[in-house]
Amino acid sequence: MTTLVNLVVLLGMFFVIPVGLRLVDGPARSGLTRTARYWPVAALPGAVALWLPRGAPATALAACYALATVALAVQAPVRLARTRSLAPAEVATLTALVAPAVAGLALVAERSGYRLFGFDLDILALTVPHFHFAGFTAALVAGLVCRAAPGRPAARTAAALSVPVGTAMVLAGYFVDDWAQLAGAVVLTTGMWLVGLLTWRDLRPAAPDRTTGGLLAVSAVTLVATMLLALWWALGRAAGFPHPTLTWMAATHGLGNALGFALCSLLAWRRTKELHP
C-alpha cells in the first residue's frame, strides 16, 4: 500500500495542485499563478520525504513542504478579504486553498512517526492523498462546476457547499465517532454525485472538443463507483458490517478518484481554459 499511496501523493504534489491553482480566477489570480509556477520546487522535498525511512531527515523535508502548504492556505483569507464573498463557489475555492495544509501537517507527523491526535500512522499516511484530492481537487472542481454549469441553481449551490462541508465532516468524524464520519461521507458523496451529474448533463455536451468531453465523461462516471465505495467503507465501520480494508480502498477508491476523477477533471478544465481563455 505504501508504494501506491506515495505514487498517488506524487501526482497530487506535482500535477494536481499546480494545475488546479492555474484554474482559479478572480482576486489574487496572479499570485496563485506564480505559486503554481514554483510549486514543483516546493513539492520536491516533500516528495523525497515520502521515500525516506521515518526519522529526522524525512521530517525536515516534509516540514519544508508543509510550510509551502501553509503559505498557500494563507492566501485563502487574503482572497476572502478582497472578495468579501461567501458565495457557494467561493466557499469551495477557499476550501481548496486551505486543504493542502492538512495534508502537509499529516505528512510531517507521519514521517516523524508521531501519532498526531492519537491517529495510527496508516491513517495519517492516507490523510495526505485524501486532502490533495478530496480536499483540494474535489472542492476546486465543485467551485468550477458551480460557476460554469448553466441553470440548476439549487444543484450548483448544493454541490459547491456539500463538498467542502462533507470533507470537513469526514475530518471531524475522526475526532468524534464512526457514525459522525458516516454522516460526513453521506454529505461528501452527495456533493460529489451532484458534481458528476452537472458535469455529465450540462458541461460534457458543451465541451469545446471530443477529447475534453470524453475527459469530463470519465470524471463524472468514475464518481459513481468511487463514492459508493466510500459509503460502503464508512457504513461498515459504523455498523460493524464487512467492509473493504484500507489497502483495498487505496487501490480502488483512492486510485479511481486520483486518476479517473481528479486527473481527468483537471485535464478537461485545463483544455477548456486553453481553448476558451
From TrEMBL:
<feature type="transmembrane region" description="Helical">
    <location>
        <begin position="58"/>
        <end position="78"/>
    </location>
</feature>
<feature type="transmembrane region" description="Helical">
    <location>
        <begin position="90"/>
        <end position="109"/>
    </location>
</feature>
<feature type="transmembrane region" description="Helical">
    <location>
        <begin position="182"/>
        <end position="200"/>
    </location>
</feature>
<keyword id="KW-0812">Transmembrane</keyword>
<feature type="transmembrane region" description="Helical">
    <location>
        <begin position="158"/>
        <end position="176"/>
    </location>
</feature>
<feature type="transmembrane region" description="Helical">
    <location>
        <begin position="212"/>
        <end position="234"/>
    </location>
</feature>
<dbReference type="Pfam" id="PF14158">
    <property type="entry name" value="YndJ"/>
</dbReference>
<feature type="transmembrane region" description="Helical">
    <location>
        <begin position="246"/>
        <end position="269"/>
    </location>
</feature>
<dbReference type="InterPro" id="IPR025450">
    <property type="entry name" value="YndJ-like"/>
</dbReference>
<keyword id="KW-0472">Membrane</keyword>
<feature type="transmembrane region" description="Helical">
    <location>
        <begin position="129"/>
        <end position="146"/>
    </location>
</feature>
<feature type="transmembrane region" description="Helical">
    <location>
        <begin position="6"/>
        <end position="24"/>
    </location>
</feature>
<protein>
    <recommendedName>
        <fullName>YndJ-like protein</fullName>
    </recommendedName>
</protein>
<keyword id="KW-1133">Transmembrane helix</keyword>
